[in-house]
Hints:
The complex is a heterodimer.
Chain A: E1 6-17, E2 20-32, E3 37-41, H1 48-55, E4 64-73, E5 76-77, H2 83-89, E6 94-97, H3 101-104, H4 111-121, H5 127-140, H6 146-149, H7 159-171, E7 177-181, H8 189-206, E8 209-214, H9 217-223, E9 226-231, E10 234-240, H10 241-246, H11 251-258, H12 298-302, E11 307-311, E12 314-317, H13 321-327
Parallel strand pairs in A: 3-8, 3-9, 6-7, 7-8
Antiparallel strand pairs in A: 1-2, 1-4, 4-5, 9-10, 10-12, 11-12
Helix pairs in contact in A: 4-5, 5-7, 7-8
Chain B: H1 2-28, H2 34-37, H3 44-54, H4 60-72, H5 86-121, H6 126-140, H7 143-157, H8 169-199, H9 202-209, H10 214-252, H11 257-266, H12 270-298, H13 300-303
Amino acid sequence: xxxxxxxIDDLRIEFRSGGEIVHAANGVSFQINPGETAAxxxxxxxxxxxxxxxxxxxxxxxxxxxxxGAVRFKGQDVLGMPIAKWRDYCGREIAxxxxxxxxxxxxxxxVGWQIAELFRAHGVAFGRDANAxxxxxxxxxxxxxxxxxxKDYAHQFSGGMRQRxxxxxxxxxxxxxxxxxxxxxxxxxxxxAQIMELLEELRxxxxxxxxxxxxxxxxxxxxxxNVAVMYAGRVVERGPVSEVLARxxxxxxxxLLDSVPRANSLxxxxxxxxxxxxxxxxxxxxxxxxxRCRFATDLCRNEEPPSVAVTPRRxxxxxxxxxxxxxx
Amino acid sequence: MASFLGRRxxxxxxxxxxxxxxxxxxxxxxxxxxDLYLPIxxxxxxxxxxxxxxxxxxxxxxxxxVFLKDVSNGDLGYSxxxxxxxxxxxxxxxxxxxxxxxxxxxxxxxxxxIVGAIAAYKPGGVFDRISSMASLAGASAPDFWIAITGILIxxxxxxxLPTSGVGDLPYWILPIGVLMLxxxxxxxxxxxxxxxxxxxxxxxKTARAKGxxxxxxxxxxALRNACLSIVTVAGDLTVGMINGAVIVETxxxxxxxxxxxxxxxxxxxxxxxxxxxxxxxxxIFLLNIAIDFLYVxxxxxxxxx
Lengths: 328, 305
């Protein structure tokens, strides 16, 4: 086994505002190896984007506070290092693509300027050289007339093209790890596929590792090697995608899979997960999923579930792993 | 762009005509200049002669038509006080006011951007609280009172600065300080609010994720966006500075347009009052056009509409 490129260990994040404490991450553990594609799957509010923001050290404090755990990138302690030193890693060795490219691009600078900024900020290239490299990147992510479009602004691009610009910025300095936070959520379905294809292509070219944050099971199944399923600020199940999706070990993963309409479920009712995700200021005692779970017993209502090795490469935090496993 | 400018010019022309009408007739309500310009025991003959010479014996409507005709020929009349073309007086006074207002505006915008940006960087922090309080005080303090108190403290009691007049640096400190106070206070609040919004935006996150240094994040990415609202308010404040200039110039005996305006009103020097106001109104019109251009230059989204 190679050393993981990124390790998140028991990460805890709180948001404090108005006397209320929102527990956004409650001991998130996750790792990814070089060259691997890992997906973090979860509903809105499950803590997946917050975790990514914490890794990139983009959380505004206050209101966000990291109250425990560690993040290691290439063996280096991320949360403890001076911010200026971490910023030097950002863009160069670890990069991020955000969900909404329209608001994530600066509206008053041309996209070419914003891409070239990476070269300037990291002292790689300046002036015309940096601009020429920006044009090359636009070409690489499939933007027609790149030399001309480099002078345009974010609002002059279509949604898909804007996301391509974001991707161009992320890969500019050939990072070893790319975090893509719901990169296709804001896009049309047809464009979604193109963007995922582009990401996968670029990833494979440079053997970059990629963390794909998404709530889209289809995307996970298509591109990821490993998956971590998050619920109420914890990774409740993780393991190889093929195994986890074929036969979940956690009741939540199972419910999630059951809720997806399939080609052979024509004419049947959809099976949504009943109830709504927990209020993170008042997470239920025991297993956070128990109010919505059909396997729930008194044990689930009172005690936090242990981490169970479903198979040697898989972990699920559920009191009823066997029952779930046999049910699926 | 040409049609936009044309529309803008038309609106301004209409406003200017309204303004001239109002000024022309209102200033005549202040009384008869003859009383002020002739000795108290002047004979009726002399009075009539004076009124006739300046056209005050004709009906106001007729006076107005004559005035319009003169204006269209570029003639704004003679100052009653100085016996010189009113326009000459105004143009003489303008550079002094522009220097005063220009320095005050540039200083208050620059300082407000620095203070507002630092305050917004750590909202609720010590610096933010102090600067919020100070800027609120600055924005609310009545400038005539600050001006007189300033003279009392720094000129009369401490004798550090001259009481009034124009000269080298020490003469500028009090007038500029007083003139800056209100725009600075307001601008700090505007910059703070605009920067607060910009700093919590998604594009600032992107910039940080790219590894852009914090100074560039604040003063390039965030400030460049905050500029859009800063320019709007700064434009209004620059226009409003004319008001401030009237008070400051009067208190500090600064020979600018503000003082000229007040002196002319006091002396019922109608042609000079009219000329000052027309030139000032035109300057404001030009300033507004400049702000529009600046807007277009600053925001590519407007440019491409």
